[in-house]
Specification:
This protein has six helices and eight strands, in the order H-H-H-E-E-E-E-E-H-H-H-E-E-E. With 205 residues, the protein is of the alpha+beta class. It is globular, with a radius of gyration of 18 Å.
Length: 205
């Protein structure tokens, strides 16, 4: 996560320095400078992969059009829980939450990556879940199962609420239907099998 937060997707010539810096910052990970070439190939794969339901890769997103670790605070008392959905519309995927106990306090979260591309705004979350040692272990059904098992659908629903409030505060004329590009959950261990959530109420595998 640290490396993906710090690299410039569009400037791979600067990655070596950033990789070495991350290795020094986290010496207990087992990644060494001997792995430098492997890490560069890994980052190239991530940033050069065409995102589903789009016509661009992350290497087209310049640093000036992205924010990493976008932090938010959401007062839970301001949410109308009676209107909170029990599942994602049209998909029968439950949003698991304890509805018997009123939630209070403030929900604090960090969105891994928020970026703009072609006047559309996207949310992206990096997932390092280990679903197997082979690329084929990261097929769409396995990713969907992991999403549901870990209640990531509820997570991205809250992320979307926070992001929409953020955009509407800064862009008074923000049009959700035209300008919200959607959500990507990228399982980096199986990057060739990407689960794309292109709209808050529309799941694409």
């Amino acid at each position: 996560h640290d490396l993906l937060e710090r690299i410039d997707f569009s400037q791979s010539n600067n990655w070596e320095k950033t990789i070495k810096s991350s290795i020094n910052r986290y010496p207990g990970t087992g990644v060494k400078e001997d792995h430098l070439e492997m890490m560069q190939v890994f980052l190239q794969t991530i940033t050069n992969t065409l995102l589903p339901s789009s016509d661009f890769c992350l290497n087209a997103v310049t640093r000036s059009r992205r924010l990493s670790e976008l932090e938010f605070d959401m007062p839970l008392t301001q949410i109308d829980w009676s209107a909170f959905p029990t599942e994602l519309e049209n998909n029968n995927i439950p949003l698991r939450i304890n509805r018997d106990t009123p939630l209070t306090g403030i929900l604090n979260g960090k969105i891994d990556l928020f970026f703009e591309q072609d006047n559309r705004y996207y949310l992206l979350d990096w997932k390092s879940n280990h679903l197997g040692s082979k690329p084929e272990d990261y097929h769409p059904e396995a990713l969907a199962a992991s999403m549901e098992e870990n209640n990531y659908y509820l997570q991205y629903y809250f992320y979307c609420l926070a992001l929409l409030r953020y955009l509407r505060l800064r862009l008074p004329d923000f049009d959700y239907e035209k300008q919200f590009g959607g959500v990507y959950y990228l399982f980096v261990r199986g990057i060739r099998h990407v689960l794309s959530l292109s709209q808050i109420d529309n799941i694409l595998l």
